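USER:
Make up one protein:

ASSISTANT:
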Amino acid sequence: MIGEAIRMVTGAVGRTIDSGERWLFDGKKATYGLAAMRILLGVAILGSLAVNFTYRHYVWGPGARWLTPWLTVDEYDAPFTWVFAQDDGTVVFTLKYLLLAALAVAFTLGWRTRIVTPVLMIAIASLMRLNPLADDAGDNIVRIMLLFLCFADTSMRWSLDARRRARPGYRPLLPLPPWVGTLFHNVALIAVATQVFMIYMTSGLSKVQGSMWQEGVGLYYPLRIGQYAPWPGLNELVYTNGVFVTIGSYVTVFVQVLFPLLLLRRGTRVLALLAIFAMHVGIAVTMALPWFSLAMIAADMVFVRDDTYRAVARWARRRRPTPAHDHQPSVLSWRRGRLMIMGFHRGNRARSAAVCRSSHAP
């Protein structure tokens, strides 16, 4: 009896290990999801840099010298001190700022991502360390995800790198065995998913401990904060609806706490992702945190199956209007038309000859 139980347990463990090995080495997973994540993260970085461009000197540059005592709190060390320095002048800081934006554009387009991604991560962390008070959760998510993406192949789809690799005669700069790239890619994907799980579960469990979320009024109070209300009228329309506030509060906690379990089945996964996307869109609109929401949506894109991305791409191609055909006749159509005209003339000549013969007949 005990021996049979031991054999069953060891067999189950062996099958689990075999399945895990096949998943890790049998091709790169979530290639479309990671590509979408790359694009959205790049857009979030560019958006944050663009909206702060006017105030860049006061947030991170020479105008933020009063924050010098705070720089010792996080104790950043090399290589995060190599790009932006405390003693940069206005011109030097602006040039580095523009260089960082150029890196974000290259990352978004998927150009030389193996080199651009780690450089972008170091540059972003180097900039953010100059003002710890200006950082938010979105900045932390961007830095963490960029670290994971350094080991993933985010340019396999929808990128300039993918077009370059598809050219005949392409040779990688540093050739590696295929299984090495596959292993690092899938492990990086696991790291991204684990980080997202930790964010949602920690947030949900912290909400559960508060009486406001237990009573179903957790959404009411954040919407009343004036500093996070870009459109006060819209916020008032939301928090004055008791039914919406109650349902939204409970659904938010439920989805965040059980998010990993909801992804196990397709039906619940679709509902969970729709709820998460709706939550982040609501945060972006009602609390003026668009870049945080976009960074989280970018991380959530890895949970959408590649088959779904392919289906959406096929639908988009079918919906794309077909280009109008050239009005100049092709050679084949020209020949067909010429043959029809010749046949028409021959028929006319034959009819004319018949008429002439009939008219001269006795």
Observations:
- The two ends are 120 Å apart (CA to CA).
